[in-house]
């Protein structure tokens, strides 16, 4: 039985404790939080769990084999490093790290110590994204043309990070999983409407080789909640709408037909193809439950997680470059 | 009675002939098209209209007081200049001109000759956009924060111009009308998926002073048709969805509250405000009918049209800068 | 070339003239309307068509081989009978007749004279309904359980007939076509909210053998426009939403599983089955064009139309029984 | 502090325990369930609560001042009567009772003993329904014309009661609350598609005086989930869609204008009026929390609950009459 210690019992920590408690092969043995009232809550709901104020004290507990970190991004690096140095496997909230440099050290440290390092890219464990991954991997979409996502709503203005690090991180993690390639260049624009605060809306373009392009629109100040992704391929196109109660994934048998005989004025003809739409049935398993058990299995069998530290780092690489581009009104930044 | 001559009876020309025929104070007296079968169609439907193969012959007709040009964008400049030089008022399809230089000459020539020059920015005459304009002008939205539009569908790939010139031109003309200010800088990205063809999808950011930002997403290769604009202000926010049968315009009494007392760690608090939503009743008058009569009235009373040549030129200015930025992966371009 | 005479050039007549003019093998040769301004309109748009004030004069024209009747329902019977007696094939608007007795005479007269008699059940020629018919006939839905339709909006209050005869007639004609069976009993309720006017909202249940049930909700006084039909079968279920721009027909692989082993307390278990949803591609051909050509072909080849007089009569049979039930607060009426 | 005992810890019981635990002025002191594993669950989550197998034992506990009954409908009567006889206030799940006769005895017994008797009509405590009630009571809708609701989905087939008692009970309770009048007659139709099981789909019409009509469509065998109510009035009309994430209540300023001058052919003219749509902001308070505190306050202050035993009885009266009508294919039944 793998013993889990959770650091941070704020907004997301309770979900981690609940899911790791129910995960096959694992049990939550410790929770660390500096706030007394948060520890009291743990003690009431989970009397068998030991609570800690001090991270090092928790790491000294030999029953803790793995650590889940659910604290603000600025603390991911020091906490993850301390846990790895104490020989613990590490599960860390997204964004994986505050900088590429930090993320690289975390990945290197885990590799050196042969420990499992995983980032909580929850969305890639949802039934919707797993189904899309299946379709992409089967080649159903043909050549990938574009990935376009919108994630906007009236949301909490963060004071430490821009909306890119708060919202686009979800979509970048999904894109990284689905596409399996990294962009070569990014260009981002955005705006801060509250003086002294980071950008509350942003637009990010990622350029890949082979004419693949991705775009992300994120906004904390929108009157309606939109969670919509379009994925265009040469054979099929997908609309993934997370606000739909059912039919979150729709597959369109639509596209263009490029005639390869060039006509007298040297132009290719571009025609249309429209066909059926198909919404595959999706299961109802909670993503975090699948993810928690995946972490446990990766540790047990020495496998690399789907959302490995490297995946977390790839996303941070894009975010860091995007932030630089955004500070320069869209000036492209190579990755 | 103002005599109108229409040049080009292809896709849009028939709409112009029909609407100018019914416009108060005007009548269509001439149509010019080089294709015999198109002229035959005019002759059958409008026996009283004289048809021409040659533009100059039509311009020599003293009954033609004004000319409406519905030809490909590359011919707008030479045709409009010839018409102006012949002393005719001019109504020209969008995009107004193929380049800023051409547009500037057209505007100068009309001014010099004291002739009315109008661009067919049809959308600004729709009941939805007129209602939004009313709300913006009343100050209902407060300070403008952003303008965000999406116009995507599976559409005709143009061979001569990119999707920016074909689709974004609509949204830029709406934005120009609603906001009444011009951007200082643009950044655009896009991609061409058919070799030898212009970009079929594009993302354009416009930066204005006072932290106003606008963004346009256009795509000819989307599986679904989306026509949605979000307009964010400090007091109210609007969703304008042209695919809605009724309730195209929704006004949300939502926003953020920025507390101006700074707390001990020098941060402003950002809170939320949510209120009612309101969808104003819109009339059903055809936009092109209103626009045609507006052209006639402007000529009769020497007024400047809402969609003047200057308005057309402002939009071309953005398109030209955007094309340059797009060719450089988002490199910002000042206007 | 089949010569068509159209009686009634009001709301629907122009659509008939336009479609029969373009139908292969037919041409409109005559139009009859008592109103001078309607005749003038015909003469302007269709100079080759002869106009008549008097029906008998038109029927005396030997170039008129078939007659299309687009007048109020009360005149369908006398006009159709006169046309049949004059040896003309007849195409008549829905509802087919004002009473079952009238409809029976019309059908008998056409049969006796071996003339084609067809009712304008336009919806059964739409691509959506033809696709559903294909699925039903293939047995894709399994045993049919129910047919449920809603057709409501803020609509024109008729003064001569209730909302059943005005709106439910559409859905009854679709159901008659799709199901191919007639109900054995009906029960209807409704209400008139304007004194002296017929019912402006109504609910109609049709009982068939084999536990099939159908229900129709029609309303002229609804704040929103709804056109939605659910069709439930043992294997699959369909949602047909005519307000959807695309994806009007959705096929759900959903249903119940009834376990046939009865348990100790003599109950069958009822479980669920959920699967994919599929929206077949629909073509864009105008229904009235298909219908007009079908009428011509049926006359040429002596075939029975899909929407034959008998089909029109079956729908009138339901409407007449429903009206009686509605007058008695839902008292069931056998058919 | 009012001590609450909950009978039945199945599907709904846990919600009652949770909400009464958090309600101001109350605490859950006892839970009774015959199933050991359900009691064990209570003991784990609520160590301070005493669990019982036997209802009478629980009723003998002097700390239990009021009882909440969340058991199948057939046991509501015996359990409620035993509780009232033991001097306890009673909160009972809907449907209030299995028959009108039972319900009448329950109401009489509570009145005789001056005890609070309340039925769990949860929906009337939601923010959406409370807002509609406010509009109706202000007279905003004008004269009420109709109430039309649809509640369909792929749902659990009950073996003891028809879909009317399972689903329509929700809408009847909402209608009873909003309209404040009782129907004089009902007519219902329905069908059972699983042999030996009660009707799984049903249509119910309620006739009121003053030309008010209500209709309910309920179905356990629908491919999609619909929760939509239309309320028509002479001044305004409402669409209440419980599947909308936001904007559940939309108020339409639409209607008809009946001209009271009668024309020469003795007809009133009926015209249209269309205006704005307005979606009032709704609060987010959980309905069951409001309801639980309302029960406590009614006991404390001797007030009649909004969802009193009489309200529960009124709904059962409709359900009983509807069941009789449904067994006779829509034969109307007076109430």
From TrEMBL, chains A, B, C, D:
Gene3D superfamilies: Dihydrodipicolinate Reductase, domain 2, NAD(P)-binding Rossmann-like Domain. InterPro entries: Gfo/Idh/MocA-like_OxRdtase_C (IPR004104), Gfo/Idh/MocA-like_OxRdtase_N (IPR000683), Gfo/Idh/MocA_Oxidoreductases (IPR051450), NAD(P)-bd_dom_sf (IPR036291). GO terms for molecular function: nucleotide binding. Residues 133-334 form the Gfo/Idh/MocA-like oxidoreductase C-terminal domain. It comes from the Bacteria. Residues 3-121 form the Gfo/Idh/MocA-like oxidoreductase N-terminal domain. Belongs to the Gfo/Idh/MocA family. This is Oxidoreductase domain-containing protein. It comes from Oscillochloris trichoides DG-6.
